[in-house]
Amino acid sequence: MHLRRVSRHNASSSYVYSAQIWSESAHRERKQHKNRRFSCNATGANSDEGAAIIDGKAIAQTVREEIGVEVASLKASTGKVPGLAVVLVGGRKDSETYVRSKKKGCEEAGIQSFGTDLPEDVTEEELLKVVADYNADPSVHGILVQLPLPDHINEENVLNAISIEKDVDGFHPLNMGLLAQRGREPFFVPCTPKGCVELLERSGIEISGKTAVVIGRSNIVGMPANLLLQRRDATVTVVHSRTPNAKEVTQQADIVIVACGRAEMVRGDWIKPGAAVIDVGINAVDDATKKRGYRLVGDACFDEIKPIAGAITPVPGGVGPMTIAMLLQNTLEGFKRTVSA
Ligand SMILES: Nc1nc2c(c(=O)[nH]1)N[C@@H](CN(C=O)c1ccc(C(=O)N[C@@H](CCC(=O)O)C(=O)O)cc1)CN2
């Protein structure tokens, strides 16, 4: 995700971490909603005060503990542990933080982590050689190359080079293609959209038969989120930067996954009373009152939506922590396929 400055309602500027760009201006209307209904039975429900807050941090912690238990049991029965290789190129502070968290997550779950840190000016050829070596290493069950990569490296070439059986990010076009086909199973599903669905399921929110809107159509979140919801029998509409009536379409949805990459673009009056809102955005907005000089907000306007929705994920502490939990889960799944083969 790239750190960039954008304009935002009620703020002179903000920094946005996002893989996607929503090319239209942010919505500015602030309508009051009357017919409130709080039908959701999500974790931590506090219906008197509006939407249940889906605590992604707590759910991710539960998933990580479950993975730890299973890894320990498989270690006892096979004498082997899953291995995850994490490749970092350059010195972006945010990428370094995510990579550190991934390695720490591995350690806590009993997964062996392998790391390769490459300089900013590494050639594509050198990076491809690192990937090829991990492809050939039987103690590595998952490979991920932290994104974004420096501009001189062709991201597509690198993602295509990862063995589909070790593609724990699920970004390889063959895994994407398998996800898109009915009756076929990908080796791995991308971690962030997988985490969104896991949050809904673990919060007891019904997906089958519901109407869902996914806002954003990126390869890594919007598109796979759409496919995952369809696989669970939701009726899905994808809203994007060229959708003329994005608000009206979103107002019909029981479930809204927001991944448009624009700080607080989705406002309270976009949301049907009682709907579940899963916010994928992580945007840093200037805030002099905070120690860090900024605060994080999502792509959905939490304060406006909370009184209306049935359930909502916060930012931070919603989808973000699930991304790493799903990465560990994918690594475990990759390992299990090798021990059962
Ligand atoms: N190869 C990949 N690269 C990137 C991915 C990815 O899934 N695979 N996703 C993002 C970064 N990312 C993991 O890599 C990631 C982003 C955010 C979080 C998270 O937990 N965020 C916290 C807030 C953190 C903060 O305080 O700054 C939250 O939302 O609560 C985890 C992982 C781009 N690159």
TrEMBL record:
Keywords: Hydrolase, Multifunctional enzyme, NADP, One-carbon metabolism, Oxidoreductase. GO terms for molecular function: methenyltetrahydrofolate cyclohydrolase activity; methylenetetrahydrofolate dehydrogenase (NADP+) activity. GO terms for biological process: tetrahydrofolate interconversion. Pathway: One-carbon metabolism; tetrahydrofolate interconversion. Residues 190-337 form the Tetrahydrofolate dehydrogenase/cyclohydrolase NAD(P)-binding domain. PROSITE patterns: THF_DHG_CYH_1 (PS00766), THF_DHG_CYH_2 (PS00767). Signal peptide: none annotated. It catalyses: (6R)-5,10-methylene-5,6,7,8-tetrahydrofolate + NADP(+) = (6R)-5,10-methenyltetrahydrofolate + NADPH; (6R)-5,10-methenyltetrahydrofolate + H2O = (6R)-10-formyltetrahydrofolate + H(+). Pfam families: THF_DHG_CYH (PF00763), THF_DHG_CYH_C (PF02882). SUPFAM superfamilies: Aminoacid dehydrogenase-like, N-terminal domain, NAD(P)-binding Rossmann-fold domains. GO terms for cellular component: cytosol. InterPro entries: Aminoacid_DH-like_N_sf, NAD(P)-bd_dom_sf, THF_DH/CycHdrlase, THF_DH/CycHdrlase_cat_dom, THF_DH/CycHdrlase_CS, THF_DH/CycHdrlase_NAD-bd_dom. Residues 54-169 form the Tetrahydrofolate dehydrogenase/cyclohydrolase catalytic domain. Coiled coil: none annotated. Belongs to the tetrahydrofolate dehydrogenase/cyclohydrolase family. Catalyzes the oxidation of 5,10-methylenetetrahydrofolate to 5,10-methenyltetrahydrofolate and then the hydrolysis of 5,10-methenyltetrahydrofolate to 10-formyltetrahydrofolate. HAMAP family: THF_DHG_CYH. Homodimer. This is Bifunctional protein FolD, variant 2. It comes from Cymbomonas tetramitiformis. The lineage of its organism: Eukaryota, Viridiplantae, Chlorophyta, Pyramimonadophyceae, Pyramimonadales.
